[in-house]
């Protein structure tokens, strides 16, 4: 089975393909000739995932899945949330986003946070969603070279290493995206 993953983020494609069984092959947006930025104008993570999946179905005719992920920090009333990629501005700069979070939490005791991923799947004229959540907290400083996004400042519960310090196999096992993808795979079974 081949299915389109509605993202231009190669890191996400790599993470998700590593979780997929060998009988499911991910096709990228580049593979279907989609080079435009797909609108993400919803006020919710779930809404953005649905918007992206529906866009590919409507404009390209392919069944697909799309995800949206947000970092939700207790002390910041759930921010950056749906604005995670653009938290420090439209340039989507991961370091600037992390720096802004660290500055806003400076001197704060409550550093509880969670990553939330919602995957929307369009398949056979149906739309399904799958959610994965990973709880943890925000570190005092960036640690690790792996991962992407906020991974260097997110310490998952029960671990002493940030997502950026963990091997991809371990991050996929405990992480938000991995949890949502396993639900997606279960739906295919």
Explain this structure.
The protein has 189 residues and is α/β, with parallel strands linked by helices. It has a single domain, classed as Maf protein (Alpha-Beta Complex). It contains 5 helices and 6 strands; from the N terminus they run E-H-E-H-E-H-E-E-E-H-H. It has helices at 10-19, 45-60, 94-104, 168-174, 176-188, and strands at 2-5, 25-27, 64-73, 112-123, 126-138, 154-156. Strands 2-1-3-4-5-6 form a 6-stranded mixed β-sheet. A hairpin with a 2-residue loop joins strand 4 and strand 5. Helix 4 (168-174) crosses helix 5. It is globular, with a radius of gyration of 16 Å.
- Gap from first CA to last CA: 12 Å
| The CATH C-level class name | Alpha Beta
Order of helices and strands: EHEHEHEEEHH
Radius of gyration: 16 Å
CATH domain topology: Maf protein
The total count of helices amounts to: 5
How many β-strand runs? 6
Mean pLDDT: 94
Shape: globular
For the record, the count of structural domains works out to 1
Instruction: Name the structural class.
Output: alpha/beta
């Amino acid at each position: 089975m081949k299915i389109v993953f509605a993202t231009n983020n190669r890191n996400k494609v790599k993470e998700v393909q590593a979780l997929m069984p060998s009988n499911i092959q991910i096709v990228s947006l580049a593979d279907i000739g989609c080079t435009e930025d797909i609108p993400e104008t919803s006020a919710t993570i779930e809404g953005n995932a649905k918007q992206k999946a529906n866009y590919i179905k409507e404009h390209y005719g392919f069944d697909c899945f799309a995800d949206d992920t947000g970092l939700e920090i207790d002390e910041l009333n759930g921010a950056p949330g749906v604005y995670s990629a653009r938290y420090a501005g439209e340039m989507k700069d991961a370091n600037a986003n992390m720096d802004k979070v660290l500055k806003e939490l400076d001197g704060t005791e409550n550093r509880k946070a969670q990553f939330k991923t919602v995957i929307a799947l369009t398949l056979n004229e149906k739309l399904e969603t799958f959610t994965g959540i990973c709880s943890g907290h925000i570190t005092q400083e960036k640690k690790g070279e792996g991962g992407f996004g906020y991974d260097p400042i997110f310490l998952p519960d029960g671990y002493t290493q940030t997502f950026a310090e963990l091997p991809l196999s371990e991050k996929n096992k405990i992480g938000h995206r991995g949890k949502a993808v396993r639900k997606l795979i279960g739906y295919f079974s």
